[in-house]
Specification:
Layout lengths: L6 H14 L3 E4 L8 H6 L10 E4 L2 H11 L5 E4 L5 E2 L10 E3 L9 H6 L4 E3 L11 H19 L9
Parallel strand pairs: 1-2, 3-5, 3-6, 4-6
Helix pairs in contact: 1-5
Length: about 160
């Protein structure tokens, strides 16, 4: 998540990550606190089971990703993309990059990941999906692809 603004959305995304065994990367600045006290107050009982990484900016995230997950591809989710999410070829270890609720991803990040920029098909003139909903759809599409290719068993969490 690049500069998320709404704590409830990030909480829901965190829950999706826990249930699908995905890591959550948060790129500062955040529009809220995620310290232990704030998470307890918000009732995020699953947060201790979440693999969460916080990065000072997009450059720090890129450096972490390059060092810790070499070869990992980044998929940029944006309404400005030409390609549908359903035309993406997700692989285990890929990263999915979503922007803040009010503005999406900045143009710089979209351009940096243009080769893997994807969008959700939507009715013309309608607002974008809620980011927590979009993340969930994308993650499960990735899991569906892994299962269909036989890269994991029919129940990847069994």
């Amino acid at each position: 998540m690049h500069e998320p603004e709404i704590p409830n959305n990030t909480g829901n995304i965190g829950r999706t990550c826990v249930t699908t065994r995905c890591a959550l990367h948060l790129i500062d600045p955040l529009g809220f606190e995620i310290d232990d006290k704030a998470c307890r107050r918000a009732g995020l009982d699953y947060w201790p089971r979440l693999e969460v990484h916080r990065h000072a900016d997009a450059g720090a995230y890129d450096a972490w990703r390059t060092e810790r997950t070499p070869g990992a591809r980044v998929w940029a989710f944006t309404t400005k993309a030409e390609r549908s999410v359903f035309d993406a070829d997700f692989r285990a270890g890929d990263h999915m990059l979503f922007g803040k609720e009010s503005a999406g991803l900045p143009d710089e990040l979209i351009e940096r990941h243009r080769a893997r920029a994807v969008r959700f098909p939507m009715a013309p003139g309608e607002r974008s999906l809620n980011v927590a909903t979009a993340v969930t759809v994308a993650v499960y599409e990735g899991i569906r692809q892994l299962i269909a290719r036989g890269d994991t068993g029919p129940d990847p969490f069994a």
